[in-house]
Structure formats: C-alpha cells, structure tokens
Write a structure and sequence with these properties.
single chain; 95 residues; three-stranded mixed beta sheet
C-alpha cells in the first residue's frame, strides 16, 4: 500500500517532514508520467525514504539519475541527508 496525500493530511502521526517529502515526490511525478513512468512514496524510515518506480522508469537507463535528482531535491528541501531507496514489487507502506 502506497502513501497517499489524504493519508498524510489525516494522520496526526505524519509530520511536516513527511509532508515535505511527499510534496517533493509529487512535484517530480508529472514529468515522469509524461514519459510513461512514475515514482510513488512507499515508506519513510528515518533517513531512508523508500520509493517505487513504475512504468517506463523500471527499465529506463536514466532511472538512477532520476533517483539521484529526487534525493538531491529532498536533501535541499529538508536540510538533512536522506537516502532514497528504490523498492520493487508491492511493498507495504508503514508510517
């Protein structure tokens, strides 16, 4: 189960940090979707942020560059080091 924007707003356990992470990923998604791919937030576990690449992003040779770009934007926005970790399959979202 992937984290959805409604879950972020409704859950009192979700912090401003989690909302910032979600917002950064949502900013990137339209560009990926235009090319037939997508990136969805799966889980936030401390400094690890798990995302799932789908569609054209799965086999794209530039997916590592995409992940590095998202990670750099997250580090910039959060002001702390985070590690973006791609996951495969149907991962369970944990808050």
């Amino acid at each position: 189960m992937l984290l959805q924007p409604k879950q972020l707003k409704q859950s009192p356990a979700i912090t401003d940090r989690a909302q910032t992470i979600h917002a950064v990923i949502e900013e990137i998604r339209p560009n990926l979707q235009r090319d037939g791919g997508d990136c969805q937030l799966v889980e936030i576990a401390g400094s690890k942020i798990m995302v799932k690449l789908t569609g054209a992003c799965v086999l794209c040779k530039l997916s590592s560059f995409t992940l590095e770009s998202i990670q750099a934007r997250l580090v910039e926005r959060l002001g702390e080091f985070v590690r973006l970790v791609p996951v495969a399959g149907a991962a369970q979202a944990r808050q």
